[in-house]
Design goal:
seven-stranded mixed β-sheet, alpha/beta, about 900 residues, binds iron/sulfur cluster
């Protein structure tokens, strides 16, 4: 007999369950519908509701199944008359707490649990209490809190406190006055609630329920969130009217989210149905858009591309699938004969990728998300994870609860600072000095991992020599950080209290003119400490968009072929054999060079897919001038936007819920994207459009091409896997059940949780000296005395193209706020909510003052979402990191004017 399992009988059915499992687990395994109102399927039992009472042969009383350990040979009856009678009484009592009006929003929502249990026990669905004690709290945009429907089971407070670790709600009051409440007995909107919906998903009665109009759910499809690079699994729920239910739920086999979602993943898929989706191909004639057939639009697009071969650039989408990206780069290389293909990684993590390729030989995060929860120290640099990667921030909070040290390095007080053991607030642009000073402490105090350095790295001696000037005195003077804090950060990072250390960074250190030096300084420190290659350690650039990792992997970068293959003869031969055409051997232009190329004639036609450079490029007036110079522009997207307005042809693309494919998240996990609904109108998947465009352009050019006749995206994935050894072992079939992390070189390989356990892809890890140079290209002066910093918000994604079309998000963040320190606000004579004009040498915007000490005196923060006519990139500076050409979005000089 297997001693790791026990065998019991429930309602005369035998069942085998793991040792230590509860009787309720056995009941659920058999699919017996036993009430369990306070039991969240993913959490430990609370034992609060007493609705899962069962009869056990030879045992007195009626135990709660959730708290009853299963023992070998146990005989359980859920339908025993005594158990049914007492459960009925408990349910009746529970219903008596409710008002009679409760109706579910969706038939399959969790709060059916109480209604269904009541009906099965011969009771009405709703309660019969004549009293009315609480007004519903409708202050949140996506859901209501209706305390009249609350049975005080406590599932929501566990979801908020123990799962999300936010603690916005708790059980307050006593006896008859007991209720779910927020701090100060105020409204939900005034609390720290982030609208993540974890509590709504778990509520068994509908006391917490979405605001959407009720509808029957006809289909559920597991897919991957279309927003950030965390890549949480979501279940798309299709209503009988064909629309997506606003409340998505998490996927049971979800490795990325660990059973949690943020507000965008749970509630914000409604942009798919937005009334202003473009769903018919368009051609511009005489300055006016005309609806045309696909054939006409594709022929016009092919004509424009063909006549500009040799002067072409493609901007692929990090929101589209790997398969979409693979076909777009193939079109660019095989048909258009250029490597001018890039995507938004240029604007976020190109310094990280380049530095990691040079130092390690791989440009990806080394660890998995679970390592954050196992680490003894988390060093989070230039990243506002709570806003940008909320589900990763939950893992950070869980790590802190387990005793891990959290060090936050950020000039701005981000939410994580509240949980940090140490917050380092360096002067913007002084990161290299800070990391090098930390490195000196590590070496001076003998905290480095010299075994690792000796056996696994090269270039150590040169790097140590380069650190000579970076004393603690120098570090303190340049960065403004007290020397004791610099030293403490170095000590905790090198010698965490347990396990290893994870180094996590965001665009706060990459979007600078010295972005690549910053990334090298980070990596040097990690190499010297040996903090990678084992559980609980690692180096993690947090990727922005949902598929920015995959878009680069698929080859949408001008510096490499798919799978980061180079342009050497061997790789070119290999791709020529596969594609029947040899890719060009020279590196192409990066996106920022393409913009310059529009002005100097190197680029005359562009194919822009799912991107909006006239919102994302720095110095938007300059970018607009560049786009206006183009002879021909094709835009492929869901919506008309600033760049699309300048296009000659618009090709309507299918949204993520309307197509199949894969996304690759920030931990290198390739995950399935599955079609849940038909594409809107005539919209088509990006890969299909790109294939048609490739074939028609080639025909006009008289080029014979093969390999654009895919019937389904799995064929594209298989081709990509055949060309890139790191995913050769993957297939759609193998990605079922939560995806796989590359490298996964063979069909039997389980995927790779962490990199660099034994070696680096380049052989030895390489130290690359990094020097502190100018803090920024543009520093404050008497005319422009403030330092502008830009970033994202929890309730909007990037420029807001998708999130501005989700009403609930707009209600949460309706207007552009300019964060200013109280000292500056007083000097300017502006109150919180007052209007401000922000002016740089390149442009201006207006916004509403948010007076907060989250920014230091002399600093201003503006999110780069476009709300109204205001967009931060009218202000930002088109100065570039010389190596990767990433623009310096994070620092420029501005002045503030009270309006
Ligand atoms: S929505 Fe999220 S943050 Fe708000 S109360 Fe519910 S669990 Fe807490
Ligand atoms: S954390 Fe990112 S991937 Fe996860 S639900 Fe939120 S937006 Fe989607």
């Amino acid at each position: 007999m297997d001693t790791a399992t026990v065998h019991i009988t429930v309602d005369e059915s035998p069942v085998e369950i793991p040792l230590g499992a509860s009787v309720l687990d056995a009941v659920n395994r058999l699919g017996i519908p036993l009430p369990q109102l306070c039991k969240d399927p993913d959490r430990s039992p609370l034992g609060a509701c007493r609705t899962c009472l069962v009869h056990v042969e030879g045992q007195r009383g009626l135990p709660a199944a959730c708290h009853l350990p299963a023992r070998e040979g146990m005989v359980v009856r859920t339908e025993h008359p005594d158990a049914v009678r007492v459960r009925r009484a408990v349910l009746d009592l529970t219903l008596s707490m409710l008002t009679p009006s409760l109706e579910p929003a969706n038939e399959r929502d969790s709060f059916q649990e109480l209604g269904a249990a009541a009906i099965r026990h011969g009771l009405g669905r709703a309660g019969h209490a004549p009293h009315h004690r609480f007004e519903p709290d409708v202050s949140k945009s996506f859901f209501v809190l209706d305390r009249e429907a609350c049975i005080l089971c406590g599932r929501c407070t566990v979801a908020c406190g123990d799962v999300q670790r936010i603690g916005a709600i708790s059980l307050a009051g006593r006896g008859h006055d007991a209720r779910v409440g927020v701090f100060g007995d105020s409204t939900m909107a005034s609390s720290v609630c982030t609208s993540c919906g974890q509590c709504v998903a778990t509520c068994p009665t509908g006391a917490l329920r979405p605001k959407e109009t009720p509808a029957r759910i006809v289909r559920e499809v597991e897919t991957t969130c279309p927003y950030c690079g965390v890549g949480c699994g979501i279940t798309l729920r299709v209503r009988e009217d064909g629309r997506l239910a606003t409340m998505a739920d998490d996927v049971p086999a979800n490795h990325s989210s660990g059973g949690t979602l943020c507000v965008k993943g749970r509630f914000a898929t409604g942009f798919v149905h937005s009334g202003d989706r473009i769903t018919t191909p368009l051609i511009k004639r005489d300055g006016m858009w005309r609806e045309v057939s696909w054939d006409e639009a594709l022929e016009a697009a092919a004509d424009g591309l063909a006549r500009n071969r040799g002067h072409f650039g493609a901007l692929a989408s990090a929101k589209a699938t790997n398969e979409d990206g693979f076909v777009i780069q193939k079109l660019t290389r095989v048909v258009m004969g250029t490597n001018n293909v890039d995507h938004c990684t240029r604007l976020c993590h190109s310094p990280s990728v380049e530095a990691m390729l040079v130092s390690m030989g791989s440009g990806a995060t080394s660890n998995s998300y679970e390592d954050y929860e196992e680490a003894g120290c988390l060093l989070v640099v230039g990243a506002d994870a709570s806003a940008n990667h909320p589900v990763i921030a939950i893992r950070f909070r869980r790590a802190v609860a387990r005793g891990a040290r959290l060090i936050v390095i950020n000039p701005k007080r981000v939410e994580l600072c509240d949980q940090a053991d140490l917050w380092i607030r360096q002067k913007p642009g002084t990161d290299v000095a800070l990391f090098n000073a930390m490195a000196r402490v590590m070496l001076d105090e003998g905290l480095g991992n010299l075994d690792f350095v000796r056996t696994r790295t090269e270039g150590f001696e040169d790097w140590v020599r380069s650190l000579e000037p970076y004393t603690l005195d120098y570090g303190e003077r340049v960065t403004g950080v007290p020397r004791a804090d610099i030293a403490q950060a170095a000590r905790w990072y090198a010698r965490p209290p347990f396990s290893g250390s994870c180094r996590i960074w965001g665009m706060g250190i990459t979007q600078h003119i010295n972005g690549t030096a910053n990334a090298h300084a980070v990596l040097n420190l990690s190499l010297a400490a040996g903090q990678m290659g084992f559980p609980g350690s690692g180096i993690s650039p947090l990727r922005g968009q949902n598929n920015v990792q995959g878009c680069g992997d698929a080859g949408c970068i001008p510096t490499n072929l798919p799978g980061y293959a180079g342009y050497g003869e061997g790789d070119l031969d290999r791709f020529e054999r596969a594609w029947g055409a040899r890719p060009p051997a020279e590196q192409g232009l990066v996106v920022t060079e393409m913009m310059e190329g529009c002005l100097d004639g190197r680029v005359r036609a562009m194919y822009v897919v799912g991107e909006n450079p006239l919102l994302s490029e720095p110095d938007l007036h300059h970018a607009e001038k560049a786009i206006q110079q183009l002879d021909f522009l094709v835009v492929q997207d869901l919506f008309m936007h600033e760049t699309a307005e300048h296009a000659h042809v618009f090709l309507p693309a299918a949204a993520f819920a309307e197509k199949d494919g894969t996304f690759t998240n920030s931990e290198r996990r390739v995950q399935r994207v599955r079609q849940a609904i038909e594409p809107a109108g005539q919209a088509r998947p990006d890969w299909w459009i790109a294939c048609e465009l490739a074939k028609r352009t080639a025909r006009r050019l008289g080029i014979r091409v093969t390999g654009f006749d895919y019937h389904q995206p799995s064929e594209i994935f298989d081709e990509m896997a055949s060309l890139w050894p790191s995913v050769r072992g993957m297939s759609y079939a193998r990605l079922e059940g939560g995806g796989l992390q590359w490298p996964c070189p063979t069909p039997e390989h389980p995927g790779t949780r962490y990199l660099y356990g034994d070696s680096f892809p380049r052989g030895k890890g390489r130290f690359v000296p990094a020097l502190q140079t100018a803090e920024a290209a543009e520093l404050p002066d008497p005319e422009y005395p403030f330092v502008l910093n830009t970033g994202r918000l929890l309730y909007h994604w990037h420029g807001g193209t998708l999130t501005r079309r989700v009403q609930g998000l707009l209600e949460l963040a309706p207007r552009l706020e300019v964060a200013v320190n109280p000292v500056d606000a007083r000097r300017l004579g502006v109150d919180d909510g007052g209007t401000l004009r922000v002016v740089s040498r390149r442009g201006e915007l207006t916004g509403y003052a948010h007076v907060t000490d989250a920014v230091r005196p002399g600093a201003v923060f503006v999110p780069f979402v476009k709300l109204g006519d205001s967009a931060a990139n009218f202000l930002t500076n088109a100065a570039y990191d010389p190596s990767t050409k990433i623009p310096e979005y994070k620092v420029c000089a501005v002045r503030l004017e009270r309006i």
